[in-house]
Amino acid sequence: xxxxxxxxxxxxxxxxxxxxxxxxxxxxxxxxxxxxxxxxxxxxxxxxxxxxxxxxxxxxxxxxxxxxxxxxxxxxxxxxxxxxxxxxxxxxxxxxxxxxxxxxxxxxxxxxxxxxxxxxxxxxxxxxxxxxxxxxxxxxxxxxxxxxxxxxxxxxxxxxxxxxxxxxxxxxxxxxxxxxxxxxxxxxxxxxxxxxxxxxxxxxxxxxxxxxxxxxxxxxxxxxxxxxxxxxxxxxxxxxxxxxxxxxxxxxxxxxxxxxxxxxxxxxxxxxxxxxxxxxxxxxxxxxxxxxxxxxxxxxxxxxxxxxxxxxxxxxxxxxxxxxxxxxxxxxxxxxxxxxxxxxxxxxxxxxxxxxxxxxxxxxxxxxxxxxxxxxxxxxxxxxxxxxxxxxxxxxxxxxxxxxxxxxxxxxxxxxxxxxxxxxxxxxxxxxxxxxxxxxxxxxxxxxxxxxxxxxxxxxxxxxxxxxxxxxxxxxxxxxxxxxxxxxxxxxxxxxxxxxxxxxxxxxxxxxxxxxxxxxxxxxxxxxxxxxxxxx
Length: 536
Known about the structure:
Largest sheet: 2 strands, antiparallel
Strand order of the largest sheet: 1-2
CATH topology: Growth Hormone, Chain: A
CATH architecture: Up-down Bundle
Number of domains: 1
Order of helices and strands: HHHHHHHHHHHHHEEHHHHHHHHH
CATH superfamily: MFS general substrate transporter like domains
CATH class: Mainly Alpha
Strand content: under 5%
Number of strands: 2
Distance between the termini: 54 Å
């Protein structure tokens, strides 16, 4: 009678293609703890979530300092109390109310120049994003993310070095920002694709909603770090985040497992009991049973048009094709165009706040640069709550477009109220800013995470797993064009009054809502049809 072996010994624990850090950890853990081997899928999933969370947190941490430092690159320093060490090292400043401006931002066109910095970053980011998705489908995402984080950190560092070496060339700043934008495109397609590979569709909205808080946490950390140095030495506002970015990039290289197959952790699909078969090439297929995610209600024709129908289902489907999908093929996936265009306007609003909110708070209140930066983090805290709320609602209703539309519908009047009453009192400002963060960032987070992952694994792809990064890049790339346009227009429009900037943002929210109406009608019709089927 054969001797039964523990479950964890059935699978190999030698992963020759795994990162060096993972090989060391698994070797040590296998000797010390058999429980780790029995639950290694859970451990690897947790490590992937944690590492991708930290990675994209760093990406946003290095984007935020520019919005904080704007307030000191061009400001009137009359009446500002100088630090004693400044007077000791530099002497008394000249009798000039703009002595602390930093050339070339010391002229009357400073707003346009600062806006051009945002545009150079965001337009290069938007253009490069479309190419980044295609590259990500064809290379190791571990190397892709590691190198992207390293070079993103370097160019963030170089912006701060300009003050250290007294560089005042506008061309230098534009070049650094443009290169930073290009390398930052490695982040989103990379992390979304990796998480999509490791996690199925169950509670995807909630998982992505919680995970997507890395964006807001990164913005908050970037604001706090930059605010800590902005009044004394703004170069450190860039140097510190850039250094941290490089360190975490090296950690990605050592520990990130970008594919479950690398560590023999393929999902057990198509069987409630967890069984699966193994093909000769190492791919796992179902061994029987029904998929947990298969639609149990409705006709087959209804399932064919259901955008949330999983890619893993009937074993009678055509063979899986693993060729990387093209740009035209990705655009044919139902919902990609609508969500991409809606994200254009949603991201326009979000990034206008990202780059101009600290300056707006400082100009509309009596708060200084540091306190304005600290207060602006409430918008990002609201974004965390909004992302989780959007994910929960989407999971419970199965209607992503309707969820986004509902939040966009409430966001427009909230922005108007904030512009009119935000300066009345600090408590009013806090409450309205938090609420605006919830409603503005909720749809943006849902579209860029859960919706992108669903569309990248749409049933029309016939199980092709090499579409996720391309679809994600198309959606986020289109949104990034809006992210580039928003801060640019804000810099130009703000000269005629901040109320005009808010009118622009309100109109953008309304347009984002209108672009989703067709999908909303489709979701509501499908939900009504299902309800009728249950009644019958």
